[in-house]
Write a structure and sequence with these properties.
The protein is α+β, with helices and mostly antiparallel strands. Helix content is 27%, strand content 30%.
Length: 81
Amino acid sequence: ASVEAALYRAWKEPSGFPPQTQCEVRFDITASGRLLNPLITSTSGDSDFDASALRAVRDTRGLGPTPDGRSRSYSFIFNLK
């Protein structure tokens, strides 16, 4: 839940898209909580929307260490609320 909240705080939701617009981004979370290697795994079909999701992952800070002290891969679906 904290990863999701941090991503939505960092995301500047683009305007002008239908409510069902979404994309999925996969990224790695290091043991220290850094988010690395974001990659679109399911595109919205619009490069501006997808780029906004990638920026959100790159701009997310302050997650802190993972609970178990291990790195992991994570996927997140960005969708308009």
